[in-house]
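Workshop exercise sheet. Pairs work together: one partner reads the sequence aloud, the other fills in the structure field after running the prediction. Swap roles for the next sheet.
Pair: D.N. / O.F.
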Amino acid sequence: MIAIPVEGSTREIGTDMRIFDSNWMQVEKYLQHDDRIVLPIGSTEQHGFLSLGTDAILAERVSVEAAAPLGVPVLPVLPFGMAPYFASYPGSMSLRFSTYIEVVRDLLDCLEHQGFRRIAMINGHGGNSPVAGLIREWTCQLRKEAVQVLFHSWYSGPKTVVAANEFDHDQMHGSWVENFAWTRLADVVMPAPKPIVPLAIVMNLGPDAIREAAPDGSLGGAYEYPDEAMQKVWAAGVAEVREVIESGWVK
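Structure field:
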């Protein structure tokens, strides 16, 4: 644990490093001994019977739990992503590709200017994956050559996928694989499993057609598994994200 004195007080870093629990002076002190920071990114979109904030909730929570023992600060999750295909489900939001890329670029510019040199971007939404191209471009610029940015989609990490495959190989949007105690809604009862809507079909449909193909938002399979099973998946995800934050950097 690292004690950071600020104006006569002491704050312990290492139990929960959400940046909102710090002031700017504490972050400046932190930068004197470490240059890592975590930026979770997610989406606000339909997830069947689960919270519209599922991707954002999971990205931030896995980041916080993974970073806490390392004493690495975690920014608040970027809650909007690129999900135009779900636009016909009320409450689902989507940024244009050009908008999203510039938002992420601005955030990276801020962090680099302040002295962060190792930025772990923990992603919770598949539609955000194209931002990896921006990261490559950004880090190749001369001014940014000393900065490392890691892009890790926590749900598709190899160890997390292996853990999920122990229970079910069908891991569809809005299904069991995203159904944790912290993404469920009170008094919402999950229905029985339903047939899979093939991704090959979904990938070629517009938002209205997707809603017709998946009226409740789930793309099929089981809607839930016992919490004991989900905890195994979650533990694998947290461990994998922690490994990225701790040792994923080029020496």
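Discussion prompt: Residues 1-14 have pLDDT under 50 and may be disordered. What would you look at next?
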